[in-house]
Amino acid sequence: MRVLIVNTSEKTGGAAVAATRLMEALNKNGVKARMIVRDKETEQITVASVGNPLLQQWRFLWERLVIFCHLHFSKEHLFDIDIANAGTDITATREFREADLIHLHWINQGFLSLGSIKKIIDSGKPVVWTMHDVWPATAICHITFNCRHFVSHCHKCRLLPGNGSDNDLAAKVWKRKKALYGNHDIAFVACSKWLASEAKKSALLTGSNVTAIPNPIDTHVFCPGDRKLAARTSSLPADKRVILFVSQRATNPYKGMEYLVDACNKLAKHYPEMRDNTVVAILGGHSEEVVEKIPFEAFPLGYVSDTKRIVEIYRAVDVFVLPSLSENLPNTIMEAMACGVPSVGFRVGGIPEMIDHKRNGYVADYCNAADLAAGIRWALDEADKAAAREECLKKVSQCYSQHNVAMKYIEVYNQAIASKRYRL
Description:
The chain has helices spanning 14-27, 53-70, 94-98, 114-122, 169-182, 193-201, 227-234, 257-270, 274-277, 307-315, 331-338, 351-354, 369-382, 385-399, 402-423; strands spanning 2-9, 32-39, 47-49, 101-104, 127-131, 186-190, 209-212, 241-249, 278-285, 297-302, 319-322, 343-346, 361-364. The chain is an alpha/beta fold. Strand 12, helix 12 and strand 13 (361-364) form a beta-alpha-beta unit.
């Protein structure tokens, strides 16, 4: 079986990481998987780029310009919206022609348009679409928060000026997606049970097949190691407890840094000894901008793309904290657990599926900094560290191994191919 994975980027962003890991997992389990991207960042021969870079940039800018106009020339929400009005036709590429099945992932920001996707579907090849957020099941947004319009039809969008109207940009894109999905058989996959449940409620996906399959991780790469050596390699203290926060951009408000700061302030107030024995490591762009807000010594590590260095950082810490306001199935929690590190996160999205409360981590009440602090305290001072470590490794082995995830996808692929043959 030859599968073509389609994603905007090869390496940048959680979806890119997950798509690349899936390609590797499939190739290790009997599937000939390749990847086609807009932004190729390595020399990996199984990954191809497509299109003229200048034309690709123009498509991205054109989509942003149209959105900018609909936002009445405000930058607020400019990158919270995708309308897929411009994109690349990948159906003429050799990689597409040779594939038996097309596997879409995150294809936004000018890579594929709805018209591009229609050409893919019209080619007759079976299509699987992994949802890394809720965008395929809504009109224009990636995060719904409390909006439930997608259950019936998107309109009066909270992201548009004046909360939109009955015939706003969201309503228009909704109609285009409805026409695209209506007469075609796409097998949708969500990376978490939570997202699968949300997708099944969407009026866009009524009658569609939606399956929940987690992302895979290579446990030969992400695995426990010598902590003292890792601390030295990562320039982190080996004689203090290390709290780790990871985000592509540390100042992204959706990643909840303000709640971590609040939690650390509460811990510093109630347990003043922590000021001397506990530090915070911040992995991500703009990390230096939040250092002064943290009451403990902080280490801004910046943005890191080298996998080996990322693994060393995980091995050097005691607890990973992800206070995100919205999450699907974060790769970072999976990475931390694969290295034997317990995680603390809010009860939101797919996080409670990953963290087994007070076994391999702590699930805090949503947006509750006091409970987040309690979770950090549990991981550092109350948990049986050896037992928590073993529970982390057990969870990863049972749920996120490359073999287990690849086998689940192969089953979806076979069903999609059989369904396409039946319809023909």
